[in-house]
Amino acid sequence: MSSPDLSTRQLRAFLALSQQRNFTRAAALLHLSQPAFSALIRSLEQALDARLFDRNTRSVELTAEGRVFEGSAQRLLEDFGDAMGDLRAHLQLGKGRVSIAALPSLAAGWLPAIFAEYRQNWPGVDLDLHDSLSDDCIALLRTGKADFALAATGPNSMGLQTEVLCADGFHLVCRKDHPLAKRKAADLRLKDLAPYPFVHLARNSSVRQRLDAAMHPMQMNTVLEVEHLATVMGMVEAGIGISLVPALTLFHFERPTLVRLPIKAAGLTRRIYVVQREGESLSVAAQAMRKLVVQRMKAVLA
């Protein structure tokens, strides 16, 4: 037998009558007319196919089935109240969870301030951060482990909705005693870098992929390939070589021994996208985080 469809109005009417044992008082408690109240009780008994009350002119008493149902009705109303309270808390950002996948340079550079601002405004919302390379960010998004991603993916990724967050220019980083440190940024060209030892990021990074595309067919004098920008910084500071890094990563290279010079070349721009699953709405908490990310990035670049 299929389960009957019960309404909260029916459950509240049943509990009011079980407590008051009087139709007139129970109807008044729920601000209903007595005929409307009686109709609710009758419809509930029909839905359950069970008599819940014995009535006569002097009294109203629960039947055996009514006593069995009383505890269940109370629990159903409490569960419904908890569910509505939980939903209201999520809608009001009193609770919830937001998971973001972001490039390591963004995760370390400017996301911490955004996370701090978000937590100050909505301390009940839990935050997850996956700091990963671009392809890994997209994989986390596709598998539902991230609500949205900040990545360098292309604008035509199947099944994903993308919005350009910013365009990130590149800078030469080298020691102050390096010959290129004395060059004027306006005169600096990619071919000027070719003779010097160069420290590259790994080939699966969005930075390396953008550099390779912009430099082709020119070959750099690569002496090292490393996984992390902090390692690039250490090697450049030690004089192992020079490197090219996006502007949003320059906080790694704020050292008194280093020089940072902007360099312009055709195609030498890394676009950062806000990416989410196509056709899928973000939770209220995730929408608030996405909005804050976009607002703060625009403020940084203004």
Structure, explained:
With 302 residues, the protein is α/β, with parallel strands linked by helices. The protein has three domains: 8-91, Winged helix-like DNA-binding domain superfamily/Winged helix DNA-binding domain (Arc Repressor Mutant, subunit A), CATH 1.10.10.10; 96-164 and 271-301, D-Maltodextrin-Binding Protein, domain 2; 169-268, D-Maltodextrin-Binding Protein, domain 2, CATH 3.40.190.10. The protein is built from ten helices and eleven strands. The chain is rod-shaped and about 105 Å long. It starts with 7 loop residues before the first helix and ends with a helix. The mean pLDDT is 88.
**CATH homologous superfamily descriptor of the largest domain:** Periplasmic binding protein-like II
Structural class label: alpha/beta
Gyration radius (Cα, Å) is: 32 Å
Domains (count) = 3
Produce the secondary structure layout.
Layout (H helix, E strand, L loop, with lengths): L7 H13 L2 H7 L4 H15 L4 E3 L4 E3 L1 H28 L4 E7 L1 H6 L1 H11 L3 E7 L2 H9 L5 E4 L8 E16 L21 E5 L4 H10 L5 E6 L2 H9 L5 E4 L11 E6 L5 E9 L6 H18 L1
Helix pairs in contact: 1-2, 1-3, 1-4, 2-3, 6-10
Keywords for this entry:
D-Maltodextrin-Binding Protein, domain 2; 42% helix; 11 strands; two-stranded antiparallel sheet; 302 residues; alpha/beta; rod-shaped; single chain
